Amino acid sequence: MELGGQTALVTGAGQRIGAVCAEALAKAGVRLALHAHQSRQAAQTLQARIRQQGGEAELFFADLSDGQQATRLFEQVTEQMGCLQILVNNAAIFHPSTLADLSLDAWQKMMAINLTAPFLLMQQFARQKKIEAGAVIINLIDQRIVRPRPGHLAYTVAKSGLWTLSQMAAVELAPTIRVNAIAPGPILPAADAAQETFQRIVAATPLQRSGSAQDIVEALLFLLKQPFITGQLLFVDGGEHL
Ligand SMILES: NC(=O)c1ccc[n+]([C@@H]2O[C@H](COP(=O)([O-])OP(=O)(O)OC[C@H]3O[C@@H](n4cnc5c(N)ncnc54)[C@H](OP(=O)(O)O)[C@@H]3O)[C@@H](O)[C@H]2O)c1
Question: Domain total for the chain?
Fold first, then answer.
């Protein structure tokens, strides 16, 4: 399946995995709606680079902890760029939490960004009047959902919910829209993570190395182009989920 000429919204596309995925899609000829929240300057730099390379990219800013902003984001994107064929729910927060310590506010913020915003965007994506067969949603999950470790309770619950939502949507939205997911393992350490913690996780991973954002790109392109796959969770994690 050719991606050229399709239009995609990638959330959290200003930096890190989202930016690498967005740039790869642009190289494949996809018209990009780049969403960012705080990484405004990085997103502008990425937009300029994509345009220099002959690609098409528009910028949209929204705080996805606010459901109204998530809804407005989708409206703005489609008003400006028309019907979307690809939605990549990449934006997330990865804050540590335990059952003992978690506040209601922190729980609700985690659910809002990592589960409710993808839900709202998926719903609006599916409701587009001109949506046609071949449209695809890709949700970024995490291998932790099958091998929960203590310390990221709300995050793991939200990502587990997003995977269940992905499967339900894959059934409900077929045959028009395919819904797939990617479960990364150790790709990039969180900005506030200690390097030793990341290296300890990497050392305990069967393949004993970290992955790269390019590994996520390969999975993304495969799931976008493979027309007979829906409801699939692809682990890109060096075997960490085992
Ligand atoms: N990194 C890994 O090794 C790894 C491992 C497992 C799973 N994952 C998953 O893979 C995806 C990408 O990972 P990553 O490490 O590149 O993610 P990240 O850097 O932690 O976050 C991606 C983006 O989410 C956006 N975001 C955070 N809060 C937001 C808010 N309130 N409103 C709107 N956007 C918000 C940020 O945008 P701004 O910067 O513009 O604010 C950020 O750039 C995530 O879904 C993550 O859970 C990653």
Answer: 1
Pocket of ligand 1 (CB under 6 A): 12, 14-18, 36-39, 63-65, 90-94, 113, 140, 142, 184, 186-188
**pLDDT above 80 for 1:** no
Of 6, 17, 7, residue with least CA distance to 182: 17
Ligand 1: atom nearest CA of 94 is 20
* DSSP conformational letter for 181: E
Domain holding 168, by residue range, is 7-233
The CA distance from 189 to 200, in Å, is: 11
Residue 168's CB is within 10 A of a number of other CB atoms, namely 12
Q: What is the CATH number of the domain that holds 156?
A: 3.40.50.720
Under 8 Å CB-to-CB from 153, ≥6 apart: which residues? 97, 98, 99, 102
Residue 130 lies in a domain: yes
Which of these, 3, 85, 82, 69, lies nearest to 36 by C-alpha position? 69
CA 131 to ligand 1 centroid distance, Å: 27
Per residue in 100-119, pLDDT (tens digit) is: 999 999 999 999 999 999 99
Q: What is the CA(79)–ligand 1 centre distance, in A?
A: 25
Single-letter amino acid, residue 92: A
